[in-house]
Amino acid sequence: MTDLRITKYNPINRDSSGKYIADEWTSVSDIGQTFSKKIFDVDEYLRIEKNYVNAAVQMVEEFQVSNLRIVEIEEYRAFNHLPHILVESTQYLMESFSSDIVIGKNNIQDIIRLVLRELIWCKVIGDEGFYIHFGYDYYMYIGSDRESDIKWEKLPGVFVEQFNSPYSS
């Protein structure tokens, strides 16, 4: 069994109780604000978003999941929290989005972008207990009933920790 927490947060910045203590952005709506004396901009956001998408795609491929189902969907459809530069592309993603559907592995990228941009929340499930769950503040949980030999800590641009999803039911 594989259960992982995937985040942009370096585990060395957690206190003894596991709370993350560094000053970092936690939402797409934080674009334009300052964290650790640095302005968080759209380019940095898109770089991190891409890292999450790539990590999820790599795991879907590793576990050879061909079809995924979106379940427990919540749709928000408000764009006022997004920076202007992301609104048009996000509206396009939302127009192509359909709830409670089976998607191919190539469509997981759009779903992850919509979740990270806070337009939807959902769980993604697949064969052999595969799942992708999303938490607050850019926490993503991915797992499977299968084991894997891949070195998860080597996923570029994200930190991977053994961790059970708090959204498992």
Instruction: Bin the helical content.
Output: 25-40%
The number of domains is 1
Rounded to the nearest angstrom, the radius of gyration is: 16 Å
Task: Flag low-confidence runs.
Answer: none
Let me know the number of strands: 9
Strand portion, in percent?
Answer: 25-35%
Overall structural class, as computed from helix and strand content, comes to alpha+beta
SS element count, helices: 3
Shape call: globular
How would you sum up this structure, described in words?
The protein is an alpha+beta fold and 169 residues long. It has one domain (2-162). The protein contains 3 helices and 9 strands; from the N terminus they run βββαβαβαββββ. A hairpin with a 3-residue loop joins strand 7 (131-135) and strand 8. The relative contact order is 0.25. The mean pLDDT is 88.
